[in-house]
Design goal:
Layout: H1 9-15, H2 37-47, E1 54-60, E2 62-63, E3 75-76, H3 83-98, E4 107-114, H4 122-136, E5 145-150, H5 157-166, E6 170-176, H6 180-185, H7 192-205, E7 209-216, H8 223-236, E8 240-245, H9 267-283, E9 287-290, E10 293-295, H10 300-307, E11 311-313, E12 316-318, E13 324-328, E14 333-336, E15 339-343, H11 347-355, E16 361-366, H12 369-384, E17 386-388, H13 389-396, H14 400-403, H15 405-416, E18 420-423, E19 426-429, H16 431-435, H17 437-442
Parallel strand pairs: 1-4, 1-13, 2-3, 4-5, 5-6, 6-7, 7-8
Antiparallel strand pairs: 8-10, 9-10, 11-12, 14-15, 15-16, 17-19, 18-19
Helix pairs in contact: 3-4, 4-5, 5-7, 8-9
Length: 460
């Protein structure tokens, strides 16, 4: 098994600092509590002028069990009684949002995340889809992108048939690792047969694309054990793979306190797992999109990257460019017009705002001109693995090399280490630099805190 590029573990360890994932720029720590409901309503109204398609994200926070690695906003409960009041609050939020929006705009993208969306019963899923259709008018277009995250322990073949009837055409299955010892250590015991049965049924039903989520850096993982998981996953032939770097931050995420630090793979072993992952997936024909995403060359993500239309948002990489993102539910984040707006992360505060007749906006930010320039630069770097400064100059009416002179100067050290190539008016990440793309993006971040280690995970 040959490496797809020259590997330098020493260099990777040196640059393995803490930094943002750049699902947004400015990043969430820059959001202000001075930004509230009125500012969000104004942005919703302004967005109608451009008439961009809509992307709806719905956060469904309920889980029957808590996975020890989890850093998501969730509610652990075995009671299905919590769903009805939550869906009722979601409907109130949708009503308040839809009053500000031209609902003739196409809903080109829909994503249900969590938590565990399949915690909902089939009837509850139908009810929520019906309410969304009533408020926004869901699309039946062939090229729509309607995805849902699935826990194979909370779904079966009947679930998939029902989801297809509701209009979903993409699935994302949480797997994390197939090694039983690792599964027990993170409180997610999930027999391989559950995942395989769903993949087979999804293929039979003709779902457009299927993604599997894996995590490296979990307790008891080794390069050999993870290679065994990857071998089984490759045989399942998913169109996409998301292979996340586990960030152990028990001081911020309570469930992670159940994981013993001494059981985690060493930094050296973790790098070896990453190296094995890239080599095996490249050999199997997957394209490394960037960061933790891999896709078949025929998948829409890979096609969008080749065509320069790939985007990045809070759900990862997206092939649907130029959508306004409306986030619904506790902790959900919207990206509308020139603002980011986040809902309350506490379920009580979220419900309280809606019960009082208000949008549950807790904080946000309106982008300055400088923010928009840097947002564009960072997104293109993260999506294309290169940045065309001439295109940036033309888009914003600036002399980009002069405007971003300090950022380009910061990249010179990385150029000497062969992580980036500065070629005329282009900034190009080398194969090794792609693994450190977050570090390259940090050069353009004018809002980066002095001590990012307190807020962000490690890069590799």
């Amino acid at each position: 098994m040959a490496d797809p590029f020259a590997w330098d573990a020493t260099l990777l360890r040196r640059y393995d600092t803490h930094g943002p994932r750049y699902s947004s720029y400015p990043t969430v720590p820059s959001f202000s509590e001075d930004f509230g409901e009125m500012e969000y309503q104004a942005a919703l109204a302004r967005s109608n002028a451009d008439g961009r398609p809509l992307s709806l994200y719905v956060h469904l926070p309920f889980c029957r069990k808590s996975c020890h690695y989890c850093a998501c906003t969730k509610v652990t409960t075995k009671s299905s009684k919590v769903v009805e009041p939550y869906v009722s609050r979601l409907d109130r939020e949708m009503v308040l949002v839809s009053r500000q929006l031209d609902t003739r705009r196409e809903v080109a993208q829909l994503h249900w995340g969590g938590g565990t969306p399949t915690f909902l019963s089939l009837d509850q899923m139908s009810d929520l889809i019906d309410r969304m259709h009533a408020r926004f008018g869901l699309s039946s277009a062939r090229d729509r992108d309607y995805a849902i995250e699935i826990d194979p322990r909370e779904a079966d073949v009947f679930t998939l048939r029902h989801l297809q009837a509701l209009g979903f055409n993409r699935l994302s299955l949480g797997v994390q690792d197939l090694d039983p010892k690792v599964q027990r250590a993170v409180n997610r015991v999930q027999p391989r047969i559950l995942t395989e049965a769903l993949i087979d049924e999804a293929d039979r039903l003709g779902f457009r694309s299927l993604n599997l989520d894996l995590i490296y850096g979990l307790p008891f993982q080794t390069r050999d054990s993870f290679a065994a998981t990857l071998e089984q996953v490759i045989a399942m032939a998913p169109a996409r793979l998301s292979i996340f770097n586990y960030a152990h931050m028990p001081e911020r995420f309570t469930p992670q306190r159940q994981i013993r630090e001494e059981d985690l793979p060493s930094a050296e072993e973790k790098l070896a797992i990453l190296r094995t992952t890239i080599a095996m997936l490249t050999e199997a024909g997957y394209v490394h999109i960037g960061m933790d995403h891999f896709a078949r060359p025929t998948d829409s993500l890979a096609i969008a990257q080749r065509e320069g239309t790939l985007q990045r948002n809070f759900q990862g990489y997206s092939s649907h460019a130029q959508c306004d993102l409306v986030g619904l539910g506790v902790s959900a984040i919207s990206c509308i017009d020139d603002v980011y707006a986040q809902n309350h992360t506490s379920l009580d505060a979220y419900e309280g705002a809606l019960d009082a007749g208000h949008l549950p906006t807790a904080r946000g930010i309106r982008l300055t001109f400088d923010d928009r320039v840097r947002q564009h630069a960072i997104e293109r770097l993260m999506c294309d693995m290169e940045l065309d400064l001439d295109e940036l100059s033309e888009t914003f009416g600036i002399d980009a090399p002069r405007y971003l002179a300090e950022a380009l100067e910061r990249l010179e050290t990385l150029q000497r280490d062969d992580l980036v190539i500065l070629e005329g008016k282009r900034v190009i990440a080398t194969p090794l630099g792609r693994l450190l793309i977050r570090h390259l993006a940090m050069a353009f971040d004018a809002r980066l805190p002095l001590h990012p280690d307190s807020q962000f995970s490690r890069i590799v």
